[in-house]
Amino acid sequence: xxxxxxxxxxxxxxxxxxxxxDGSGVETEGVKMSINPFDEIALExxxxxxxxGKADEVVVCTIGxxxxxxxxxxxxxxxxxxALHVVTExxxxxxxxxxxxxxxxxxxxxxxxxxxxxxxxxDNNQTGQMLAALWDRPQATFASKVELEGETAxxxxxxxxxxxxxxxxxPAVLTSDLRLNEPRFVKLPDIMKxxxxxxxxxxxxxxxxxxxxxxxxxxxxxxxxxxxxxxxxSARELVDELKNKGLL
Length: 248
Known about the structure:
This protein is α/β, with parallel strands linked by helices. The chain is built from seven helices and eleven strands. The chain has helices at residues 37-51, 69-78, 94-108, 127-135, 188-194, 204-207, 235-244; strands at residues 2-6, 9-11, 33-35, 57-64, 82-87, 112-116, 139-149, 152-159, 162-169, 172-176, 199-203.
């Protein structure tokens, strides 16, 4: 079985995000970029499934500019066998991403598409669900535990009420939650080996991807600065304060 793992290039989660001075977007010049953490967890799980002998190949893929190959090489250094890069300098919104991934699915015919539940830059939480709908295959989102048996995946999901366990027939789309695993540390020899692993470039036009209408971002602005806090003496004082502010 083959596992396809889509990843996204995002500002590293340790970086304090700043809005550009002209409000046209988020500053990325000279900023550390990384694999979206939820995607990195999905990739780690795919590699563990392969190491357990339940998959033959892990293919990592992304959609974006040339710079995104840095994250693909990181994925290869973690242990992915090869990479697919859909090259575009355009901003790609979830529906277009899902359509592009569907084309890769039709090309690669994976048993599982395993991606993060959301990206930390836009927090849309849509691409996995859209792909499952376009592919017309089952989905198991917010996975905190995954077990494979034959052509079935048993997935424990994190939901508002606690945990939910479901079974889905493969092929399927799975999305990872934060507590699924802890991604491995990438060693220098693995980074060197990754430079020799196959990386195929494609374009949206190569794949015949229809662009979605999407939405237009007109301006960015930073959140208002926080005002100073104060220590209250009792719970009663806290309740009175919340009532005065109309919060209770």
